[in-house]
Amino acid sequence: QVQLAESGGGLVQAGGSLRLSCAASGRIFSSDAMAWYRQAPGKRRELVAVITGGGRTRYADSVKGRFTISRDNAKNTVSLQMNSLKPEDAAVYYCNAETFNGINYWGKGTLVTVSS
């Protein structure tokens, strides 16, 4: 079992920045992929960014150049630095871990609100 706990959400003005963090515990390994997803009201959950165990990253086109995902394997944390936030970035952000055997775990989410 893996437990994920997000933090760092909140209210920010458009153009501002927020840093989300996710603390992982349980059977999580540095080789597991970690990711951030988001879900806005009335929309499907979408991938925002993913980082592999080897540190390779991939981003949704909508956040490229503005968001940065990183991980600290020693602390079992993954972060999402969000800059130049737009109203359309407002959503509940979820931390995700995919273990080596393909099992996905999810955090409860943290709300990001962006005022225009």
User: Radius of gyration in whole Å, from Cα?
Assistant: 13 Å
* Mean pLDDT across residues: 95
Q: List low-pLDDT spans.
A: none
Described by the principal axes of the CA atoms, the overall outline is globular
Note the beta-strand portion: over 45%
**Largest beta sheet, briefly?**
7 strands, mixed
Helicity range:
under 10%
Order of helices and strands: EEEEEEEEEEE
Helical/strand content category: mainly beta
Number of helices: 0
Descriptive overview:
The mean pLDDT is 95. The chain is built from no helices and eleven strands. Strands 2, 4, 5, 6, 9, 10 and 11 form a seven-stranded mixed beta sheet that branches. Strands 1-3-8-7 form a four-stranded antiparallel beta sheet, with no helix packed on it. The protein has 116 residues and is mainly beta.
List key phrases describing it:
11 strands, 55% strand, 7-stranded mixed β-sheet, mainly beta, globular, 116 residues, 4-stranded antiparallel β-sheet
Task: Spell out the blueprint of helices and strands.
Layout: E1 2-7, E2 10-13, E3 18-26, E4 33-39, E5 46-51, E6 57-59, E7 67-72, E8 77-82, E9 91-98, E10 104-106, E11 110-115
Parallel strand pairs: 2-11
Antiparallel strand pairs: 1-3, 3-8, 4-5, 4-9, 5-6, 7-8, 9-10, 9-11
